[in-house]
Amino acid sequence: MVTAETSTIITLTDEEWQQAIAMGKRRDVWAEDRHLPQTDGTYSMNHLTSHVQGAGGEIAAARYYEIKWDATINTFRKIPDLVCCEVRSTGFVRPWLRIKETDKPGKSSWPFLSLLYVGNKTYELKGWIYGYEGMLHGYWHEPDEYSTKPEWRVPHGDEILKPPFVLQPVLLKLRELGDMRAVS
């Protein structure tokens, strides 16, 4: 349910968390079979955790915005995570919205949702921005201990992040136009 908060806490149900685990495992196997690095360019040992937390973030955002979640694998360069939005989940180690250089070609006009996984099936939806807003020079970071690839990083506390509820009218308009399926 959308409320006028600057951020919101979403705790997944046991069933939703099991869906996140199942999809995370499927994504992990798919990536491992192809010897793909994580999106930060590393081959770290927490790859399964990253996939599970990512799927859980998508589920949390879908529930918050009352959007049907179409669990997908290998669509990161073709279609958004939630109909028109990219969903980026992270843990406390990286408290910022990551926008990758590979996002630039086609995703700069998409909304990017930023979620922080706080543990125990719980996420904090921190806010959102359009991709082009986060692709500003001041947010650019060269490779470092957090990523072997350059990327934009918008801190969760930055005022450029819009509150989650501000995206709701955009999503409702898309739903009216038939571009989005609502949760039944």
Mind explaining what this structure looks like?
Strands 1-5-4-2 form a four-stranded mixed beta sheet. A three-stranded antiparallel beta sheet has the order 3-7-6, with no helix packed on it. The chain has one domain (8-176). Mean pLDDT is 83; it is low at 180-184. The protein has helices at 14-33, 47-65, 104-107, 131-134, 168-176; strands at residues 8-11, 86-90, 96-100, 111-119, 122-130, 140-141, 151-155. It has 184 residues and is α+β, with helices and mostly antiparallel strands. Strand 4 and strand 5 (122-130) form a beta hairpin.
Which terms summarize this structure?
alpha+beta; 5 helices; 7 strands; 184 residues; globular; single chain; 3-stranded antiparallel beta sheet; 4-stranded mixed beta sheet; 30% helix; disordered C terminus
Number of domains: 1
Shape label: globular
Whole-angstrom Rg: 15 Å
Number of strands: 7
Could you give the order of the helices and strands? EHHEEHEEHEEH
**Low-pLDDT regions:** 180-184
Into which percent range does the helicity of residues fall?
A: 25-40%
Distinct helical segment count: 5
Walk across the major sheet and give the strand order.
Answer: 1-5-4-2
Strand content: 15-25%
**Sheet with the most strands, sense and barrel status:** 4 strands, mixed
Which class best fits the helix and strand makeup? Answer: alpha+beta
Tell me, rounded to a whole number, the average pLDDT.
83
For the termini, the CA-CA separation is 14 Å
Reconstruct the topology from this structure.
Layout: E1 8-11, H1 14-33, H2 47-65, E2 86-90, E3 96-100, H3 104-107, E4 111-119, E5 122-130, H4 131-134, E6 140-141, E7 151-155, H5 168-176
Parallel strand pairs: 2-4
Antiparallel strand pairs: 1-5, 3-7, 4-5, 6-7
Helix pairs in contact: 1-2
